[in-house]
Design goal:
The protein has 280 residues and is an alpha+beta fold. It is built from 8 helices and 13 strands. The strands form 3 sheets. It has a 6-stranded mixed beta sheet, with helices on one face. The chain has a 5-stranded antiparallel beta sheet with strand order 8-9-2-1-10, with helices on both faces. Strands 12-13 form a two-stranded antiparallel ribbon. Strand 3 and strand 4 form a beta hairpin. Helix 1 packs across helix 2 and helix 7 packs antiparallel against helix 8. It starts with a strand and ends with a helix.
Length: 280
Amino acid sequence: MNRLYKTLIFNKQVSLSVLDTTELCQRARDIHSLEPAAAKTLGELLTCGAYMAGCLKSEKGAVSITIKAGENSGTASVSGDVNLHMRGYIDGNAGGRLAGGFMTVVKDDGFFRPFTGASELISDDVSENMEHYFELSEQIFTKVRVAAKFDGEKCIAAGGVVMQILPGAGADVEKAVVDKMNSIGDIAADIAQLGAEGVVKKFFSEETAGAYSYITEPQYKCNCSREKISALLATMDRAELEDILKEQGEISVHCHYCNTDYKFGQEDIDYIEKLRQNKV
């Protein structure tokens, strides 16, 4: 079962998150029928997205991570909300490569305007890119170690550890965080054997002794629906919809996140017109 374990360590100067996202990543692979390399990259991005979603405070909070990679690489996008309902997709033809482009993060915590940050991709490694993003765009010292391991179509294990220094932390805390992260080897192997709670006990038992912590459960859940797509189509003129129907025989809308096709015919256009006129 997916897990996000959160607590404070090093005298409440560092936030610790440990994730087990194995089932989440398996679901993503199955929905998109991805090859192992692409499934690995998407799984690691979903793990980072679940971490960020777990930091949201507002009931309307949402976060998205979008990758636009360079030549011979791919594109990817993951998003989630405060309930840790996660979704994502990746260009499966790029073999999971994400080098040479940019990462954009949008955080909407329901207050004022959303925060948007961006950074250049510095490697194909998701953990390195996320650390670079936090350092460059949010100016927060953050250590990230995420991994998703696949054997063919099966996700053996996925998850990670994220440590982020809080404001006012002492000068010695950064070294302690680096040393602690360096003590962790193959995080996927540890997640497979121990799960999130087991990783906490193995590497952080001393730091978390007596500390308050909580556990949530990320899951793959798209927020699209036929009703929402109908409302989107209602922003178009009826004449436009009629033209599409005449030319293509149907109106088809594809959701990249859950790989679902929504198809609409003449009766649906009549309903959509009523939506536009607020008659339903």
